[in-house]
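Researcher: Good morning. I'm working through a list of sequences from a screen, and I'd like to move beyond sequence-only analysis. For each chain I'm collecting a predicted structure so we can compare shapes side by side. This is the next one on the list. No need for commentary yet; just the structure.
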Amino acid sequence: METLKKELATLKERQKELENCDNEQEYNDMLDECGIDASVYAPSRILQELDPIAYNCGHTDYNDSLLSEVNDEIESKEQEIKDEQTIK
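Model: Good morning. Structure tokens for this chain:
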């Protein structure tokens, strides 16, 4: 039960981070991993500099996707905790 509660606390911290959009570096890393040869320019920087609206929209979409996953995990952990409490 303690492990589930710790996992839930970690997920809720991540949820708060995502709700505040505090993951710009994570988004940049994701863009840079799937972009062009980054030896000269990072794809995230190119997008951010040349099309900030597309960059911001992409970051919002990326963030919303991660937040949805975290919310699902939180719901699952809360149900596991509830189930364990019911069994006892």
